[in-house]
Amino acid sequence: MVVHIVMFRFEDENKSENIEKVKEMLEALPEKIPSLRSMEAGVDFLHSERSMDLVLTSTFDDRDGLEAYRVHPAHQEVVAFIKEVTVESRVVDYER
């Protein structure tokens, strides 16, 4: 199994609205992308100096499944919007 974790920091303009929109867009992806086994999106509540605003945790059967997700048009649509409204992202991919 492959686990894909991404954390995002959003621009200040329309921050709350954009976080919720991205969360909704991400949570709609499992119905559209067959290789995506599970997905969870969480919004930070602590708002500390070290905090990111949103985290995505998703799972795939294997690396090929992750790659299929990465290039899928539905995912690319979400990525395009995320790039417009975020200032930073971090990612970790690992196998378990």
Automatic annotation (TrEMBL):
Residues 2-94 form the Stress-response A/B barrel domain. Gene3D superfamilies: 3.30.70.100. Pfam families: Dabb. This is Stress-response A/B barrel domain-containing protein. It comes from Hydrogenimonas cancrithermarum. The lineage of its organism: Bacteria, Pseudomonadati, Campylobacterota, Epsilonproteobacteria, Campylobacterales.
